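WARN  no MSA supplied for this record, continuing single-sequence
INFO  ligand: 1-O-alpha-D-glucopyranosyl-D-fructose
INFO  echoing inputs
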Amino acid sequence: VEQPPWWTRAVVYQVYPRSFMDSDGDGIGDLGGVLLHLDHLADLGVDVLWLSPVYPSPQADNGYDISDYQDIDPLFGSLEQLDELIAALHARGMKLVMDLVVNHTSDQHPWFLESRSSTDDPKRDWYWWRPPREGMAPGDPGAEPTNWQSFFSGPTWELDEASGEYYLHLFDRRQPDLNWENPEVRQAVHAMMRWWLDRGVDGFRMDVINMISKDVGPDGHLHDGPPLAGSALGDGSASYLCGPRIHEFLQEMHREVFAGRDGALLTVGEMPGVTVEQARLFTDPARGEVDMVFQFEHVGLDHGTSKWDIHPLRMRDLKASFGRWQAGLADVGWNSLYWDNHDQPRAVSRFGDDSPRYRRDSATCLATLLHLHRGTPYVYQGEELGMANYPFTSLEEFADVESLNHHVHAVSAGHDPAEVMTALRCMSRDNARTPVQWDGSPNAGFTTGTPWLAVHPDHVEWNAAAQRDDEHSVLAHYRRLIALRHTDDVVALGDFTMLLPDHDEVYAFTRSLDGAELLVVCNLSRTPYRLAELLPEAPAAELVLGNLPDDEPAELRPWEARVLRLP
Ligand code: TEU
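INFO  complex generated
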């Protein structure tokens, strides 16, 4: 029989280098810092390090605006250090996955500077240049070629005064979108990717990769989207999410870059808005596209009309969503599993209970729930320490371009500044970006300088040094969960069945493989439950792993999680 791919048993750890560890005292994390803390990763037992962008960049979006794909920003270190990191990880049996940001470049990338230089430059067509709307002059209100709203507020089009044309940017105006319709663009990206693989990297996390194919239609035009409520702009997503050539582009990339070496690699496509049906196509190994995708359904369940319009998560919705993804990718394809990354608020604050009484228990409960699903779990730096949202009180404390742009646009559109602040405090990406809390010293051991973003004041209590030798800690629990996936085939490969789909507070499911069966039960609330009343088979089953002391078998305590082996 064919062996399942190695990543079906793997756990990935995401490093956001700017906030991980600063080795040179400039207040910004760097590769030297990553090298200093590889023991932390090895001790946790993770198999792969996914490194957010470290390439040369003006840092308009913390490195997701790249001005040179084949070098390292001096802010983060050097290519030599990257090589050192590859070697150090490989020596410990770990792999390195790089971030691949090719939907857009920085507006300072030489490709864009050339493209912008004149309308007949050979690279003009490498980006999306368009004249103003029919009958309008450049710069007229509403003259943008389409009505699309950018992910970072405002229109997706920026006027270039010199040529009188606009360029497309789905994200910030300093992140112009590459034109993947142009084969030279695709070839340049493929060559760059091969260069990294030849250097020894083990795969890519592909930023917003389902946005690279835009729907130009038979007439070669981009089209307006439906109007957005309360805005002059529209939703262009039907024109750029999973566009007409997306599968063709990914299959071509697979042939040109991964063919012959894909058994050792890991490829994961970040895909906002992707559906289960689409994900089956993207991750069906027979189609040769990507190994797995990041989907966004579960992190959108507390959104209203936008991420800033916050609704409490309903447990039924979470079960329905995860359940559908588990079932949808059961026979073909593969799931990736995550609560947190550098774009999401901290899970313990968002879906758990970060009050002093329940913070440790809810962090470990959420972790157990996620890590016992079928798929490849991703741990975001600090999640394994129970790091929480930052207590932001003023606008000056934020650095993120998405947060700052939103504030400007929302306030100028007449929203109550106090309400805008409340939304930012809960949802801002900066919640995930405060420095990793290594110890209880000033600046949490992250830097000897002034940190670029404030260190959470709770680091005096919540830090890696305090948790390392504490068997009851969040860190120790993550270590046990990761080890369980490595040693228990049922965890890695077993079938998934959701139980109690309509229960409002208890999340339960089974995993089974070749007659062996695990029962997982998680209490996502402060209410204690009689276990026998929920799941009669549970009290007698053998405890494999729990997050609370094993001294009250009959009761499922607040935020308790148990993994049980059924006879
Ligand atoms: O994010 C893609 C994305 O659509 C969202 O997660 C987005 O960042 C935002 O939170 C929507 O509200 C990826 C990167 O992960 C992110 O850091 C970058 O800013 C973005 O692409 C652009 O490269």
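The chain has four domains: 8-106+183-395+432-475, 110-168, 396-427, 495-566.
INFO  checksum written, moving to next record
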